[in-house]
């Protein structure tokens, strides 16, 4: 039976893997990525010091096209809430939607998913019984899916 520490290490490793995967896409989204063909041209002109120059003195041309594309998609991926045929359920769902600012935060989930490949919605219950939902990036959460209970298998 795996220990809690083994599970924590496995989930931490998943988070680190996600960070490594998303790093290049995050750089592109923030418009800090230098295109390889431009870097090669700078190396031909300025020699070995080109990499330092590209970062510090010379600004390589940047278009910001990744952020423009992602932000345009995020603006169009609008979730208006949920509904139910049962009026009490529908009211409770609307209240939870508004209480958790999901009319705004669902856009953050879309952005995280488009830039980093994954985004998570964590749902919990407050002390007074209300539903609380938060949007988490792949740097903040990890999920391990399995068909058997965790007490019967070991993390791989």
List keywords for this structure.
mainly alpha, two-stranded antiparallel sheet, 156 residues
Describe the protein's architecture and organization.
- The mean pLDDT is 83.
- The relative contact order is 0.16.
- The chain has helices spanning 4-29, 36-46, 50-55, 65-76, 87-99, 102-116; strands spanning 119-125, 131-137.
- It is 53% helix and 9% strand.
- It has a domain at 4-32 and 64-142.
- The protein has a two-stranded antiparallel ribbon.
- It is mainly alpha-helical and 156 residues long.
- α4 crosses α6 (102-116).
- It is built from six helices and two strands, in the order ααααααββ.
- β1 (119-125) and β2 form a beta hairpin.
Overall pLDDT level: 83
Structural class: mainly alpha
Give the overall shape, derived from the CA principal axes: flat
- Residue windows where pLDDT falls under 50 for at least 5 positions: none
What is the count of helical runs?
A: 6
Layout: helices, strands, pairs:
Layout (H helix, E strand, L loop, with lengths): L3 H26 L6 H11 L3 H6 L9 H12 L10 H13 L2 H15 L2 E7 L5 E7 L19
Antiparallel strand pairs: 1-2
Helix pairs in contact: 4-6
